[in-house]
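Hello Y.,

Per our agreement to keep a running log of every chain we model this quarter, I'm adding this entry. I've kept the format consistent with earlier entries: sequence first, then predicted structure.
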Amino acid sequence: MNQHKSRNSIDILLVEDNPGDVRLTIESLKEAKLLNKLHISSDGEEAMAFLRREREFKDAPRPDLILLDLNLPRKDGREVLAEIKEDSDLKQIPVVILTTSNSCEDIQETYNSYANCYIKKPVVLDEFIKVVMSIENFWLCIVQLPPKVFR
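Predicted structure for the entry above:
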């Protein structure tokens, strides 16, 4: 049995400012058989406050996985990724870049900043759902994630 299925829930932080993509992600995750709890941040500053348990997020759980868009208001995804990977308490959390950008520069820059993978969001609904479900299947069923550590 997969260790994650025995947990009460799997925490996923979705950092996404597009309400349509948030809705699609929620619907896609409902199709999965694993227990999961989706937390949503609509900009980079809010995401970092959640991860660092600041302000209204003082009781926020440590996510098992972060789905990060690059083009965000206030603090873009590139900055968020760099801060996560430079923080000794956060750097082990897998970060999946899920964005509309197909720019070679963005791909190179995010891998140079230690993104765990880069996925271009499909524009077709059925393909978007397949992508989200495959992310969850791979990262939460196949991959061995580090244990949650609360500090």
